[in-house]
Amino acid sequence: MRNKSFKIAGFIILAALLLVAYRAITANVEPFREIPSRIANFSAIEIDGGRTTFDEHKGKATLVVLSASWCPACIAELNTLKNLHKEFSAKGLSILMVSEDDNVKIASRFKKKYAMPWTMVHWNYDLMNALGNPRVIPVSYLVDSDGKFDYIEAGIIDENRMRRAIKALVK
User: Fold this and answer.
1) Contact indicator for 63, 84 with CB cutoff of 8 Å
2) Which of 16, 25, 98, 154 has the greatest count of CB atoms below 10 A from its CB?
């Protein structure tokens, strides 16, 4: 009798936990807490060594992309990023990828494996605050030469929309 009571109690607890998990997953969660109008300067560790700041990228259009090696959607958009880099880097577009991997070593392997020609930095809290603390990846921010957010896209980049937005900035 006692064993049966434990089984019933366990089942009820499990059902309650599943219900809580279901509600958390299906809740309408916004991808950003708050999106600032301009990007604040930040300092970050470059995957290839050294440090960089966002101020070093000011003066030209910059596509800031949050990504990670474990993210299938991030990997899926790499060809789009390579196409945009090839088409617009000579016209002044800079791509700055922010790795959300656990450490620089993993991010470095990710960059090498997919032959990414752009700068990649490792995430930190100041950087994430500068980007409005997004709750999703991938997410891409097109920043104009003055540091204002021009276009933001959460999820896999729509290549045509991003291309139009970039063309408007790099003329």
Assistant:
1) yes
2) 98
Q: Where is 6: in which H helix or E strand?
A: helix 2-26
DSSP at 138: S
Q: Angle at CA 64, nearest 5°, toward 53 and 128? A: 65
Whole-number pLDDT of residue 19: 54
CA distance 90 to 157: 21
Tell me the C-alpha distance between 48 and 50, whole Å.
Answer: 7
pTM of the complete model: 0.80
CA 112 to chain centroid, in Å, comes to 18
Helical H segments across 27-155, by residue range: 72-76, 78-88, 104-113, 125-130
Would you give the DSSP letter of residue 120? E
Q: Rg (Cα) of the chain, in Å, rounded? A: 20
